[in-house]
Amino acid sequence: MTKKYRVLFLSLAVVLAMSLLVVGCGGTDEPPVDTPDVADPTGDDVIMEPPAAVGEQVGFEIVGIEPGAGLMMATEEVLDVYGLEEWTLVESSSAAMAAALRRAYENQEPIIVTGWTPHWKFASFDLKYLDDPQGVYGGDEQVHTLVREGLEADEPSAFTVLDRFFWTPDDMAEVMVAIEEGSSEEQAAADWAAANQDTVNEWTEGVEEVDGNRIDLAFVAWDSEIASTNVVKYVLESIGYDVRMRQLEPAPMFQGVESGEADAMVAAWLPTTHESYMDRFGEGLVDLGPNLDGTRIGLVVPAYMDIDSIEDLR
């Protein structure tokens, strides 16, 4: 190669090398392009997904109680009024509902149940009602005592005790909690009566004792009604009655007292929960008025759930 061409070749090589050096050093005035963060497969910098909606958390299910209960019928209406077509109201029992609530609560899991107060679960767990802005569940209710026609003439002593029977939600809660903690229903009622003898005396003052006359009390197997019916049973037995308790579903309970197959019940939630049964059977029943004020029904969740209203279920 001649000297002239050798110099030209070296010059070209130098120019090419400098160009590569500029490119390799990022010689550009444009800012670097941002790239999105990528989750670290080691888990040290994982990008969290937003929490699932409450419906997804609970499988779009509300844990209910016995089919046909007024609370269940009201909840079916809630699903319709609030447009909750995806949701299912699961038929169960009051005992099964409480067991499901306990399991979820102990594991800090989400759950929605049909609930009412008084009930021992509010004393045992930190719970809250979901707001009901449409008012489907109504306001506070009362529990009424209903008896069959003719009871006052047939059994005036029992009629008087039933007519006077009245206690507070706190009284009822004491009996319910005692049963939940292991006392038998009968023992819990007897213990409450012994601790509240002045109240019991108000119900029985001046009442003539009887000798084994039979009285049938109908009740629905809700914890609240188990408590109240056992207390009334204990008091009636203390004045000589042979008391039989008859566990029934709500409709047969009302029908049984109306027909005279049972003598009385202290378990009518009015004006909302048992409204339909009063419409059907009320004309043949004697309403002695409320035996407890300040009850409530609705949808209940653990307080740790981030939800406050039925509208949040949409």
UniProtKB/TrEMBL annotation:
One of its GO terms (molecular function) is carnitine transmembrane transporter activity. Residues 1-24 form the signal peptide. The keyword Cell membrane applies. It comes from the Bacteria. Residues 53-194, 214-313 form the ABC-type glycine betaine transport system substrate-binding domain. InterPro entries: ABC_Gly_betaine_transp_sub-bd (IPR007210). One of its GO terms (biological process) is glycine betaine transport. One of its GO terms (cellular component) is ATP-binding cassette (ABC) transporter complex. Keywords: Cell membrane, Membrane, Signal, Transport. Pfam families: OpuAC. It is found in: Cell membrane. This is Glycine/betaine ABC transporter. It comes from Desulfuribacillus alkaliarsenatis.
